[in-house]
């Protein structure tokens, strides 16, 4: 089998926004308590944050982290999480049937994010709350001082404003599971008014309206249309969420699920542009794919977790090699839409459907999906080139014309480096012919491969290095051509200097 890719600097999709490599920390399971925050852990710093986890987050190079939810945010009172910790209330979290002790709130999280070299993407509660609380939290976080809420922040020991730039207007408001679920009409009006007032408090913020929770929602894509008919002028981004899983044990079909993400993005773009045309607007609506990942392994175990615990073990998917391939395909798909997808969040970051796992008070390790994300985030920054892959194809249960090779080239003009991210979905090695004649200076640097003979292989506390990337030899570029062998069922990073 052979595939072909032609790279030319004249054909560009867009410059990547670094925030396409965002992630997510929700007050859910052991993401906060036992994940990023564990004062009893030997590596805990003066704020109770695990230094080992911060190091792993830095390895992933995550420029922005969404917080504090998720479903959690739709019942959250942000005021519960600020001020003296001893005076903060414990509350029932009805989204996850857990107990929220409020030991970590927005000031602590902003501090953690700074230590992890990330920005905060703040989500507000538009489930049980409204414009008043939305206005106040922006004032508390971003106003310098001299007003009630900004002075309260100063009293709480934070003299300088957090300058939080990105704000999500609620979470998954189209979903009946959401606390305070709304119709598109109800939500569209509320998002419009909340956005307007939040921007009056701080005109520099960027606002994200909720799109559909996934592409199979019965209200998709009318939800997008109606919400934007209300809020188009007031918001900057529309959100998308999507999770995938191999529930039927059908590998070929599972590996093709990025085609669903691709179609989802295309439909949302079309809907945004439809509303733009209807409004005779000159503004382009951008997308924030602020929840995406594999999520299915833990579904059954979660039904057995006792309610009302602090930091229960929820959504603790243990990821396989095949999940890492899917995450690779999803990353490539997001990059191919870098002209419209400006932000994206791998959901989530620690313990909860996460690339990083921890044991309370103990070890931390990298799941299989850690590697494709870290590779893309560290190396695939710059200009995404338009380079359709010519690849043999297959049909699966839900998809037709699935290319065996999924690939995207990214060119970093600043340092002259090129990187090709590629997944081989075939159960046999495949030769990728790369035409580099338009890049006469290109020289082979390295070929990093993630694969395993057992697609169900996982990394665990006991065996954290079962699935790790290895370097393969890479031929020199000759006559503007490079030939690379992509091993069967593999994630590949081809780096050119
Ligand atoms: O990331 C886990 C959950 O998935 C989030 O809380 C919610 O927004 C989505 O349904």
From TrEMBL:
Instruction: Name the family.
Output: Belongs to the glycosyl hydrolase 51 family.
What pathway does the annotation place this protein in? Answer: Glycan metabolism
Give any GO molecular function from the UniProt entry: alpha-L-arabinofuranosidase activity
Q: What class of enzyme is it?
A: hydrolase
Name the InterPro entries for this protein.
Alpha-L-AF_C, ASD1_cat, GH, Glyco_hydro_b
Keyword terms, alphabetized? Carbohydrate metabolism, Glycosidase, Hydrolase
- Stretches assigned to the Alpha-L-arabinofuranosidase C-terminal domain: 290-490
Keyword Hydrolase present in the record's keywords: the answer is: yes
Reading the lineage from the top rank, the first entry is Bacteria
EC number, UniProt record: 3.2.1.55
Indicate the secretion signal residues. none
Answer yes or no on keyword Ribosomal protein: no
Q: Which reaction does it catalyse?
A: Hydrolysis of terminal non-reducing alpha-L-arabinofuranoside residues in alpha-L-arabinosides
The record describes its quaternary structure and partners as:
Homohexamer; trimer of dimers.
User: What's the protein here called?
Assistant: non-reducing end alpha-L-arabinofuranosidase
PANTHER family to which the protein is assigned, alphabetical: ALPHA-L-ARABINOFURANOSIDASE C (PTHR43576:SF3), ALPHA-L-ARABINOFURANOSIDASE C-RELATED (PTHR43576)
């Amino acid at each position: 089998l052979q595939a072909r890719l032609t790279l030319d600097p004249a054909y560009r999709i867009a410059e990547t926004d670094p925030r396409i490599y965002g992630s997510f920390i929700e007050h859910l399971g052991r993401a906060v308590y036992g994940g990023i925050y564990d004062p009893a852990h030997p590596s805990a710093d003066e704020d109770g944050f695990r230094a080992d986890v911060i190091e792993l987050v830095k390895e992933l190079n995550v420029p922005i982290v969404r917080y504090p939810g998720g479903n959690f945010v739709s019942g959250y009172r942000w005021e519960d999480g600020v001020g003296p910790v001893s005076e903060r209330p414990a509350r029932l979290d009805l989204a996850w049937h857990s107990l929220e002790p409020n030991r970590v709130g927005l000031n602590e999280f902003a501090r953690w994010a700074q230590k992890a070299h990330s920005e905060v993407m703040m989500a507000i509660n538009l489930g049980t709350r409204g414009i008043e609380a939305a206005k106040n939290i922006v004032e508390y976080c971003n106003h310098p001082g001299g007003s009630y809420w900004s002075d309260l922040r100063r009293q709480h020991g934070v003299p300088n404003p957090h300058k939080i730039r990105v704000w999500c207007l609620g979470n998954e408001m189209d979903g009946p599971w959401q606390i305070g679920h709304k119709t598109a009409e109800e939500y569209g009006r509320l998002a419009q008014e909340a956005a307007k007032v939040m921007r009056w408090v701080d005109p520099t913020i960027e606002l994200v309206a909720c799109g559909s929770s996934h592409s199979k929602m019965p209200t998709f894509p009318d939800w997008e249309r109606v919400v934007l008919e209300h809020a188009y002028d007031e918001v900057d981004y529309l959100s998308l969420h999507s999770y995938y899983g191999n529930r039927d044990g059908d590998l070929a079909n599972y590996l093709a699920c990025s085609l669903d993400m691709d179609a989802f993005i295309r439909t949302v773009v079309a809907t945004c542009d439809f509303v733009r045309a209807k409004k005779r607007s000159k503004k382009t609506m951008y997308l924030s794919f602020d929840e995406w990942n594999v999520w299915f392994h833990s579904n059954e175990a979660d039904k057995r977790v006792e309610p009302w615990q602090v930091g229960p073990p929820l959504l603790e998917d243990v990821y396989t090699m095949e999940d890492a391939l899917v995450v690779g395909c999803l990353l490539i798909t997001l990059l191919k839409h870098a002209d419209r997808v400006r932000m994206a969040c791998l959901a989530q970051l620690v313990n909860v459907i996460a690339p990083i796992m921890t044991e309370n008070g103990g070890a931390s390790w990298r799941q299989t999906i850690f590697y494709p994300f870290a590779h893309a985030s560290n190396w695939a920054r710059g200009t995404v080139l338009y380079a359709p892959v010519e690849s043999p194809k297959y049909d699966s249960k839900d998809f037709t014309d699935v290319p065996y090779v999924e690939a995207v080239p990214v060119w970093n003009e600043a340092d002259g480096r090129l990187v090709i991210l590629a997944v081989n979905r075939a159960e046999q090695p495949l030769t990728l012919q790369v035409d580099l004649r338009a890049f006469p200076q290109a020289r082979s640097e390295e070929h990093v491969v993630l694969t395993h003979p057992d697609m169900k292989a996982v990394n665990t506390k006991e065996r954290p290095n079962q699935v790790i990337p290895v370097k393969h030899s890479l031929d020199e570029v000759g006559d503007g051509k490079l030939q690379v062998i992509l091993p069967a069922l593999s994630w590949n990073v081809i780096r050119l200097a």
